Amino acid sequence: MRNVFYRVSCALARFMYGRNGSDQLNVALLVVYLFICLLRALFIHSVAAAAFFNILTLLTAAALLLRMFSRNLDRRRAENARFLSWWSPVRRRLNGLRQRSRDRDHKYFTCKNCKTVCRVPAGKGKIEITCPKCGGKIIGRS
Hints:
The protein is of the alpha+beta class.
């Protein structure tokens, strides 16, 4: 039985050689696919909307499989790089928001001029903050 699994895994490795496989864009497409399937299953009750979501899931799955089994590696890497150039700032912003919401010892203010996030100790009352980047004044309660 072990020999069969070994042969199958070797055959799969030979088949995938020179193909794109999975990258960050494929993972994002998979998440979108699962979200659409969940949305369709939970909230869609009309026939027309269900047909639309069926087509949408089919197109998402087709794009995912096309990218995964593609041999045009340069194009797939360029697509992934474009996706990451869009997604990286979004991910950093979401991580920053998550960390700031967990931090109970500090209050965060955003400068109106340069959008720099300034951190001050919480519980100090009404304070005036000078932005370290542009020198703008921020007045608020910590």
